[in-house]
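anyone else get weird line breaks when pasting these?? whatever heres mine. first is seq + tokens for prot A
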Amino acid sequence: MRNLLLTLVLVPSLLAQEQRAPVGGGEAAGLVQVEVEWIELPHEHFTELIAEGGAKRGEEFRARVGKLMRENLAKSLEVQIVTGASGEKLSSGSCKELIFPTEYQQRVMIDPPPPMEIPVPELRDDYHRIFTPTAFETREIGSLLEIEPMVSRDSNHIQMVIEPQLTWHTGNTVWLEHKNGAGNVSKIQMPEIYSLKFHTALRLKPGSCILAAALSPKDAEGTADMSRKVLVFVKADLVSPP
């Protein structure tokens, strides 16, 4: 009975390991290399390319976008590349950690402090009333890529769940500003953050690419610029082990 219970516990675990193990013939599959390319161009050029057709044929569509880049009508924003084993969660990033306050507490500084037997008077602007941060969060600003690729058993396809992201700190929003009688300025503010990101699942042949997303970049004021587009191409390939 004990052996039977042990078998029932081990079999599902072994099956799960087999499903997550690199497939496609073990060593023959090698490593998976995924490239994510971000290209910016005017919206009208993107509309013309879509109208011409071929968006589903990734290599042909990317070649036409490459022609616009050579003519200085489009430009590369970022290229992300990560290489790893099939079935593993892979990630890369080039980021700055932005630490910003999320909660504030109002405090009063009285100079000179009153004697203990005298009650503190009502708050007036001639006292040093300030807002002090009491809680903080961290946000990664820059380029991030998270991906989980899986090679098919015949090594003819690479399936992946992918989540790339570009993030900018575009400024700060001041929610409250106070200036006391001493001329000290105290602010409650939060960061403004603009992101280009998407989450999707793809299935590609090794060496091929596809247009995975079309997004709107930020303008000079940090809001969405609908007059331009950022095309995101994803390419996946098999890399022989060293």
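and prot B, same format (seq, then tokens)
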Amino acid sequence: MIDNSTDITRTTFLKHIEKIDMKLMEEQLGYCQDSRNGLTMAADRAVSYHRSKLHGKRVYFLNHSAIEYVFIKP
């Protein structure tokens, strides 16, 4: 999945995942929702967004601290 991935923008990534899942993940990882209160995931340059295939299905994933979080449609 990683070797064959394509880098994408955060905007593209957000078009393909459930917004509530992303919001919950950001909260669990300790990001602020408003940049006036601290670091947001959108502003974190260490987070990258990608598209790939896993077991023949299109997946979208983000890389945060060398951990890949994979999002797939049910």
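btw re prot B: Residues 19-28 form the longest helix (10 residues). The longest strand covers residues 57-64.
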